[in-house]
């Protein structure tokens, strides 16, 4: 699901509320700020944690990626 609107209209709040509800329903949910996640993945590639992080993300049923539009993909 993609939530899109103007700034300060509650997108992050809504996404986290949906992830929280999913957790209450028994699903595995997580949330990350996308720019930080990209940075963590780049560091993890260098220090050997890359596959561990990807495996942890793969286990999630619901993944909230906040601030997606602020990151640049190279």
Descriptive notes:
With 74 residues, the protein is α+β, with helices and mostly antiparallel strands. The chain has helices at residues 11-24, 34-47, 50-58; strands at residues 29-33, 62-66. The chain has one domain (11-70). It has a two-stranded parallel sheet. Helix 2 (34-47) packs across helix 3 (50-58). The chain starts with 10 loop residues before the first helix and ends in an 8-residue tail after the last strand.
Assess the beta-strand content as a share of residues: 5-15%
Identify low-pLDDT runs: none
Q: What is the distance, rounded to the nearest whole angstrom, between the alpha carbons of the first and last residues?
A: 24 Å
Q: What is the count of DSSP helices, taking H or I runs of 4+ residues?
A: 3
Instruction: Give average pLDDT, whole number.
Output: 89
What is the N-to-C order of secondary-structure elements (H for helix, E for strand)? Answer: HEHHE
Q: Based on helices, strands and strand pairing, what is the structural class? A: alpha+beta
The main sheet comes to: 2 strands, parallel
The Rg value, from CA coordinates, equals 14 Å
Record field, number of beta strands: 2
Secondary structure: helix percent: 40-55%
Q: Which sequence of strands runs across the widest sheet?
A: 1-2
The global form is flat
Total separate domains: 1
Described by its quaternary structure, the protein is single chain
């Amino acid at each position: 699901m993609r939530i899109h609107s103007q700034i300060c209209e509650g997108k992050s709040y809504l996404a986290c509320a949906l992830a929280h509800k999913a957790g209450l329903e028994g699903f595995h949910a997580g949330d990350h700020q996308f720019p930080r996640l990209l940075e963590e993945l780049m560091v993890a590639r260098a220090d050997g944690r890359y596959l561990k992080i990807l495996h942890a993300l793969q286990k999630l049923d619901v993944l909230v990626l906040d601030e997606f539009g602020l990151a640049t993909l190279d």
